[in-house]
Amino acid sequence: MDPIRARRSALYMPATNSRAIEKARELPCDVVILDLEDAVAPDMKEVARESALAAARAGGFGRRELVLRVNGLDEPWGKDDLAAARDTGFDAVLVPKVSQVEDLRRCRDKLGAATPLWAMIETCTAFSNLPDLAAASSAAGCKAWVIGTNDLAKEMRCRLDAARTALMPALSFAVIAARARGIALLDGVFNDLEDGDGFEQQCRQGLALGFDGKTLIHPRQVATANRVFSPELDEVRWSQQIVDAFALPENASSGVLKVDGRMVERLHLEEAQRIIALAQLAAE
Ligand SMILES: CC(C)(COP(=O)(O)OP(=O)(O)OC[C@H]1O[C@@H](n2cnc3c(N)ncnc32)[C@H](O)[C@@H]1OP(=O)(O)O)[C@@H](O)C(=O)NCCC(=O)NCCSC(=O)C[C@H](O)C(=O)O
Ligand SMILES: [Mg+2]
Q1: Which residue of 23, 169, 200, 225 has the smallest Cβ count within 10 Å?
Q2: Crossing angle for the helix pair 168-179 and 196-209, to the nearest 10 degrees
């Protein structure tokens, strides 16, 4: 089982933006994603790759996970990006538009066995193959899925309302497929930088769906994502009550207990332990 990690806030930035990368070393986000794909113009792809590698070599990101989003395998730069990212100190390499089981095998071949892999799930083909992709992700050591809601909405040609109604079945099914294989899950980005309330609502929706955190495009989104995806005090207190109840010697052989008038089973104990661990990480 992988250790529990806080991945409440994962901030993208173009790998060409040295000011943003400098800033990311100080921001309270859990994950920093240096982008070589959509945020970088075609004539800057090589410059971006060099700049990302230099940032990884320079370090200074502290506890934040440093992730490189490469170009897609079928783009002109994708294979070179993957080869360059091999064994370079990134905590993970994020591959966009992973759609078929074969894509994961191709990524692993280029990356080698040691470099952790994450996948963007954002095409209609991917969403048509979710259980197979989850099984193949697990076999390929792919530890996290990042949902690309912009690409998905574009391919679906759906019209998005504030509640993302058209995406709900897809998002929910992605959570189920990923959880079945122990894969972490990050929700898509919120494009309107001026709409703080809408952003918070969408974070809350992601949390309710089961996501571990949200991908972000601007530093101003970090604090809200951290707050929403951290366990609330009441939740932590209740979790501690469950842990304490099962720890009593007289309950050592009990599968089910009554705590504060509510039934709790050992499955609740597992979730309570996860919430307490997450709260500790969030406090750090
Ligand atoms: C959206 C932006 C282009 C806006 O940039 P800008 O107008 O420069 O913002 P501000 O003037 O408000 O910036 C204020 C300061 O904050 C720094 N900054 C801005 N953005 C970031 C960032 N992402 N990370 C770190 N720091 C950032 C600025 O440098 C300013 O600093 P200072 O000089 O000290 O004041 C811009 O925010 C941006 O480029 N965002 C990221 C875009 C991106 O990476 N997009 C790709 C990922 S999203 C995606 O691909 C979706 C997915 O694939 C899907 O399909 O859904
Ligand atoms: Mg995308």
Answers
A1: 169
A2: 50
With beta carbons less than 8 A apart as the criterion, state whether 118 and 95 touch.
yes
The structure's pTM equals: 0.96
| 219 touches ligand 1 (CB under 6 Å) | yes
The domain defined by 9-228 folds into TIM Barrel (3.20.20)
Per residue in 159-172, is it b (16+ CB within 10 Å) or e — as a string?
eeeeebeebeebbe
Most confident of 83-92, 110-119, 237-246: 237-246
- Ligand 2 centroid – CA 19 distance (Å): 23
Domain limits, the chain: 9-228, 233-283
Query: Which element (helix H / strand E) includes 57?
Result: helix 45-58
Amino acid at 183: I
For the ranges 87-96, 184-193, 233-242, which has the lowest average pLDDT?
87-96
Any ligand 1 atom below 6 A from CB of 25: no
235 is in an annotated binding site: no
Across the range 102-123, mean pLDDT stands at: 94
CA of 122 to the centre of ligand 2 (A): 6
User: What are the DSSP calls for 20-43, one per residue?
Assistant: HHHHHTTS--SEEEEESSTTS-GG
Secondary-structure breakdown of the chain: helix, strand, coil percentages, each rounded to the nearest 5:
50, 15, 35
Residues less than 5 Å from ion ligand 2, measured at CB = 122, 148, 151
The preferred substitution site among 16, 29, 31, 218 for testing ligand 1, maximizing ligand atoms within 8 Å of CB, is 218
